[in-house]
């Protein structure tokens, strides 16, 4: 039986016989976002996992600070920060097995880094020297995607292809609250559900699409509720609670892996920084709103849980912070080196083989470069 | 040696055969689109493929072109070789963002690490009495997008050879199928369907000495007809079938124009911002000293595609082509 045949037949039935194809109730998200830290559920959490999440979240916070600093030093053209969202970024990367695939948006360099991508390679897009600085096949991280939600159908197609080949691969696609308004979000979720593709969609609802708040983005009860319309379960989770996001993502990934189909997860979080360093968030939100969220910070939540339960002491905190500092120092040092670029590479990967037209243009650029070189030599003389 | 009886076959049949042979030759080839499975496509080009290869290889998708092409991108990332069908030219537009922002540039934006061998079949052009949104000539949009190959056959044999080449290509190919030639017949042997044509080579369909008609796809038979009619006027016209708009075969085109000294570009697409402007410029830049007259264009009007009852006035026909040829500054005019 083919994957397509497993979906079974569906024919419209006359009105008296009509009934929903599936019971929508089990697909509905809970009324409250799922939480672990600071709740009785935390007692069941693996202490080793909590410590691991903590170390990554602290590193992630430091990474965000360092990348933002690099924009001020002119070493990055632009940086869309995930300060405040580290729990979701980290959990997304850690919920996957090595053979799985991650489909990040341009804001999700941190998730790519946690998955193993070298931070310098993850940042080349934002430095402006190459669109994708890493090999997507090395850590199974798709290229950072700038056109909103357009990477979601890619995740569906890749997961579907893996399933057709009989491979045990799950794809996790990341998108923001603004991205859920895009047509590609709708089409990706629909294809995923129809094909029962092993995909997990993680929406980080950080409150703003640049300046536009969620109320102007959607009239849905929640973004997680959108899942029901596609026939997949929706889950609502506290996006600042790394343990909760990790658990909910883990369940969705397992479900996808076992042939249960896709899940839509809405992680409620908050973008502490502006959209990017080029944005001014004071134009559209009050400072005290940001302060409220600082009390519900991913680092604070984990640190409190771990210290209150005696799983982390001052030395442990210091070791984690030192490790984060070392990462930042290494990133700073390597980002302070000018990238080496060859203009002739412009023509290298447009097609497998350059067209005759591109060969002509390549010759033109080569001649221009030679003339520039001669001019420079001439001035020296 | 036995002689195989060669029966006339249609372009649609040759395309079906190309898909079937490609799927049989390579299990990575997957066909997806709207109505391509059980129905066999609205033009029946995918007829029988779902039955022969199963629904996982020839898949009826939800009705969403961006989703079709977007999921094909993911499938290609994982090593498959998707062939997607856009049901009609104008229905390919919802997929433009995937096409332009991903399909065309994924190889480039990953430094060559993630090529996307996707073939996008698009039935295009008018002349079949189609109602609104069913007759567009959209090739200029594709030509203007770096990273895509743009191919269009005009003969039954080329339909087979070029589609096989497109599917075999490691780059994305927009494969434009002239709708009104789907039912054109030619002697073509499905048991010996011919060679896989290289993408990027034009071909001289008719040799002539007076002037060159540069054309492609649905306008090739019109130009051949015009060339026959021109004999009565004393003109011996050469007809070049481009077959591939990207890459463009400057060599074959310019060799012909240098021989004849005169050229007319013929296509259905509108003239303003259309392929003909690029072609005329390329020919002029390369063959100026061989030209006896400016390169002229015969194109569709710069109007939204008209209602079918008026389309014959829009489409370039034999008379409009011959009128253009007459304006090529013949010595008798001087």
From TrEMBL, chain A:
Keywords: Oxidoreductase, Pyruvate, Thiamine pyrophosphate. The keyword Membrane does not apply. Its cofactor is thiamine diphosphate. One of its GO terms (biological process) is branched-chain amino acid catabolic process. Residues 1-27 are annotated as: Disordered. Gene3D superfamilies: 3.40.50.970. Residues 62-342 form the Dehydrogenase E1 component domain. This is Pyruvate dehydrogenase (Acetyl-transferring) E1 component subunit alpha. The lineage of its organism: Bacteria, Bacillati, Actinomycetota, Actinomycetes, Kitasatosporales. The gene is pdhA.
From TrEMBL, chain B:
One of its GO terms (biological process) is response to nutrient. CDD domains: TPP_PYR_E1-PDHc-beta_like. Its EC number is 1.2.4.4. The keyword Cytoplasm does not apply. Pfam families: Transket_pyr (PF02779), Transketolase_C (PF02780). Residues 9-184 form the Transketolase-like pyrimidine-binding domain. Keywords: Oxidoreductase. Its cofactor is thiamine diphosphate. InterPro entries: THDP-binding, Transketo_C/PFOR_II, Transketolase-like_Pyr-bd, Transketolase_C. GO terms for molecular function: branched-chain 2-oxo acid dehydrogenase activity; magnesium ion binding. This is 3-methyl-2-oxobutanoate dehydrogenase (2-methylpropanoyl-transferring). It comes from Streptomyces adustus.
């Amino acid at each position: 039986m083919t994957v397509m045949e497993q979906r079974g037949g569906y024919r419209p039935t006359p009105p008296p016989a009509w009934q929903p194809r599936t019971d929508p109730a089990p697909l509905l998200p809970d009324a409250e976002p799922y939480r672990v830290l600071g709740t009785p559920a935390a007692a069941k959490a693996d202490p080793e996992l909590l410590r691991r999440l903590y170390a990554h979240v602290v590193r992630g916070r430091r990474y965000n600070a360092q990348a933002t600093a690099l924009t001020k030093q002119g070493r990055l053209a632009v940086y869309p920060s995930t300060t405040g969202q580290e729990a979701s970024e980290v959990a997304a990367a850690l919920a996957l097995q090595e053979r799985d695939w991650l489909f990040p948006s341009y804001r999700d360099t941190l998730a790519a880094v946690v998955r193993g991508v070298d931070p310098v390679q993850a940042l080349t897009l934002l430095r402006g020297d190459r669109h994708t600085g890493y090999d997507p096949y090395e850590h199974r991280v798709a290229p950072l995607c700038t056109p909103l939600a357009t990477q979601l159908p890619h995740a569906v197609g890749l997961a579907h292809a893996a399933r057709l080949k009989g491979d045990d691969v799950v794809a996790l696609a990341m998108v923001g609250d603004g991205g859920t308004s895009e047509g590609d979000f709708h089409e990706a979720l629909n294809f995923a559900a129809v094909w029962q593709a092993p995909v997990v969609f993680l929406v980080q609802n950080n409150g703003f699409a640049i300046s536009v708040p969620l109320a102007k983005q959607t009239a849905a009860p929640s973004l997680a509720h959108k899942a029901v319309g596609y026939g997949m379960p929706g889950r609502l989770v506290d996006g600042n609670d790394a343990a909760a996001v990790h658990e909910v993502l883990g369940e969705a990934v397992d479900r996808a892996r076992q042939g249960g189909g896709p899940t839509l997860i809405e992680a409620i979080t908050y973008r502490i920084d502006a959209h990017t360093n080029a944005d001014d968030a004071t134009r559209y939100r009050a400072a005290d709103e940001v302060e409220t969220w600082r009390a519900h910070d991913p680092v604070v939540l984990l640190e409190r849980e771990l210290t209150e339960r005696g799983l982390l002491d001052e030395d442990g905190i210091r070791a984690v912070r030192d490790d984060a500092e070392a990462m930042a120092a290494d990133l700073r040092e390597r980002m302070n080196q000018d990238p080496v670029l060859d203009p002739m590479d412009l023509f290298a990967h447009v097609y497998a083989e350059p067209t005759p037209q591109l060969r002509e243009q390549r010759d033109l650029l080569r001649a221009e470069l030679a003339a520039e070189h001669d001019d420079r030599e001439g001035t020296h003389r | 040696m036995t002689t195989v009886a060669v029966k006339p076959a249609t372009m649609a049949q040759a395309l079906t055969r190309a898909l079937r042979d490609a799927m049989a030759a390579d299990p990575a080839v997957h066909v997806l689109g709207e109505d391509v499975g059980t129905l066999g496509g609205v033009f029946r080009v995918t007829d029988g493929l779902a039955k022969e290869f199963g629904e996982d290889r020839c898949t009826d998708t939800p009705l969403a072109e961006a989703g079709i092409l977007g999921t094909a991108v993911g499938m290609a990332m994982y090593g498959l070789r998707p062939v997607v069908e856009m049901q009609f030219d104008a229905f390919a537009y919802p997929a433009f963002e995937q096409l332009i922002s991903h399909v065309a540039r994924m190889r480039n934006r990953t430094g060559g690490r993630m090529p996307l061998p996707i073939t996008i079949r698009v039935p295009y052009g008018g002349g079949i009495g189609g109602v609104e949104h069913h007759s567009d000539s959209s090739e200029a949009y594709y030509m203007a997008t770096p990273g895509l190959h743009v191919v269009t056959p005009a003969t039954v044999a080329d339909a087979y050879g070029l589609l096989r080449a497109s599917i075999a290509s490691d780059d994305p190919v927009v494969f434009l199928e002239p709708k009104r030639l789907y039912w054109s017949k030619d002697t073509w042997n499905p048991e010996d369907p011919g060679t896989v044509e290289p993408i990027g080579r034009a071909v001289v369909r008719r040799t002539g000495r007076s002037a060159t008609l540069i054309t492609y796809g649905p306008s090739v038979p019109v130009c051949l007809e015009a060339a026959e009619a021109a004999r009565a006027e004393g003109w011996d016209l050469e007809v070049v079938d481009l077959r591939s708009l990207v890459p463009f075969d400057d060599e074959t085109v310019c060799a012909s124009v240098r021989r004849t000294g005169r050229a007319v570009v013929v296509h259905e697409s509108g003239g303003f911002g259309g392929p003909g402007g690029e072609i005329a410029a390329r020919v002029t830049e390369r063959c100026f000293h061989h030209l006896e007259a400016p390169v002229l264009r015969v194109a569709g009007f710069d109007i939204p595609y008209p209602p079918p009852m008026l389309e014959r006035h829009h489409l370039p026909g034999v008379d409009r082509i011959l009128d253009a040829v007459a304006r090529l500054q013949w010595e008798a005019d001087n």
